[in-house]
Design a protein that fits this description.
alpha+beta; 6-stranded antiparallel β-barrel; 4-stranded antiparallel beta sheet; about 30% strand; elongated
């Protein structure tokens, strides 16, 4: 049985109504989305609050940090070269033996020895020296005898010469015989031989004097090796002996510096100038050159202030100024480090021999540079950028820059920023190029 047309129409009506309803809903949704988009476009983006700072023009210093032990530049380990009982130790004005901290005097102008600080029992050496002195006196007397013999022989030679001349005249006058003339000539030759013999004895006597002097100097050496003299004006840093002790060179322990300082008889230093030896990583050591300025500080964890980096400014915290003295051209195979030595000027205060110190070396500096703090930079794809505030429009510009010298507190910008440019610090990580901002504070500037 066939369906009637009316029933077909009635069947299609609900479908058409459903289609109309869905279409109406879709049209309404599209209109709502369009209206929301229009509202977003018409609505202004609120500015982001930021803090800023202005790029300044001033000095900048690149520093390298190192640690080491300060040692007196002039330093002597004093010991005896012989062994024996210590019979003398220098006493001070209060009758006590010299001790650490006492000052001693070195040799004067043209002198060989300074103050006698200590000596061993040297009676045997004194006796040997006395024997050498006696031998020298005897040799000197032999020289005087030889000179007297030369004078006498020369006088006899002169008489023989005059006698020969007289005999030659008499012979020519046929007053004497040939035999008498030959005797006069023989006497003259004998007198000449006597002179030469006396001169030879003089040379032998002089050689004896020189040999005696050499023996006397040789006798003096054990006495010098049995004594300790001050080689220069300084302060005793270590005194490990006292009168009555027995000393032998083998008692000095050289296995380490500490052991040496505890067993060497005396250590003398000049406390007016010090040297600091450091081992720097090779990437820092390559930047260090002799003659560069340095600041030496006894307190760890303290960095020099920007003003202290200027050579004419006073230093705080007992810091002293120094200069790089030497840089090793070799890298140590174990630590992969470079040895650097820094020396202070004269009359240094606040540093002691053996003190552990920290050093800041100025490896690069520029008097006039555009500088900014480190917290203005953002790094994107390993490239440095800053956000520059357009004060008239209230937006920021993301600008790529070229970095220069990096100091302790700030960094140089070589390209991209001029003096006085306003840069974002706090809030920079939320910004993008062209973003509106509200500057709530400019560091170093008071509100107007």
């Amino acid at each position: 049985m066939k369906r009637s047309p009316l029933r077909k129409v009635l069947f299609l009506i609900p479908i058409l109504l459903l289609i109309l309803a869905v279409s109406s809903l879709a049209i309404k949704r599209v209109e709502d989305l369009a209206r929301e988009k229009a509202e977003l476009k018409s609505r202004e983006t609120p500015p982001l609050p930021v803090r800023c700072i202005r790029a300044s023009l001033g000095p900048i210093h690149a520093l390298v940090f190192g640690e080491g032990t300060a040692r007196a530049v002039r330093r002597e380990y004093l010991t005896f070269e012989n062994q024996g009982k210590i019979t003398y130790v220098k006493e001070t004005g209060d009758g006590q033996s010299v001790r650490e901290g006492d000052r001693v005097r070195g040799p004067g102008e043209g002198g060989k020895f300074g103050e006698l600080l200590a000596s061993l029992d040297k009676r045997e050496h004194v006796e040997q020296l006395e024997v050498s002195k006696s031998s020298l006196v005897e040799s000197q007397q032999q020289v005087e005898v030889a000179r007297a013999q030369i004078a006498e022989a020369e006088s006899q030679e002169n008489l023989a010469a005059d006698n020969l001349k007289r005999h030659e005249k008499l012979f020519n006058a046929k007053a004497i015989s040939q035999h008498e003339l030959d005797i006069a000539r023989a006497n003259f030759k004998t007198a000449g031989s006597t002179v030469r013999s006396a001169q030879a004895r003089l040379q032998a006597a002089l050689s004896g004097v020189n040999a005696s002097r050499a023996r006397m100097k040789q006798s003096q050496l054990p006495m010098e090796r049995s004594s300790i003299y001050a080689p220069f004006d300084g302060v005793l840093a270590y005194v490990n002996i006292k009168k009555g002790d027995y000393f032998a060179p083998g008692l000095v322990n050289t296995s380490s510096e500490e052991a040496l300082l505890r067993t060497i008889p005396m250590v003398l230093i000049d406390p007016t100038r010090f040297e600091v030896t450091m081992e720097l990583p090779y990437f820092d050591g390559f930047l260090v050159k002799p003659g560069q300025r340095a600041i030496i500080m006894a307190a760890a964890g303290i960095t020099p202030s920007p003003s202290e980096l200027e050579e004419s400014s006073p230093l705080q915290n007992n810091a002293v100024r120094g200069t790089v003295f030497s840089v090793s051209p070799a890298i140590s195979p174990g630590g992969r480090s470079i040895q650097v030595k820094i020396r202070t000027g004269k009359r240094v205060e606040g540093i002691w021999d053996g003190m552990f110190v920290v050093c800041w070396i100025i490896v690069e500096e520029k008097e006039k540079a555009v500088t900014v703090p480190f917290d203005v930079f953002v790094y994107r794809q390993n490239k440095p950028y800053v956000f520059v505030v357009d004060e008239s429009r209230g937006i920021v510009e993301q600008r790529q820059v070229v970095e220069g010298i990096a100091g302790l507190f700030k960094e140089e910008i070589v390209e991209g920023v001029l003096e006085g440019t306003l840069l974002v610090t706090d809030g920079r990580h939320r910004l993008s190029d062209g973003a509106p901002v509200e500057v709530i504070e400019v560091a170093g500037e008071t509100e107007k």
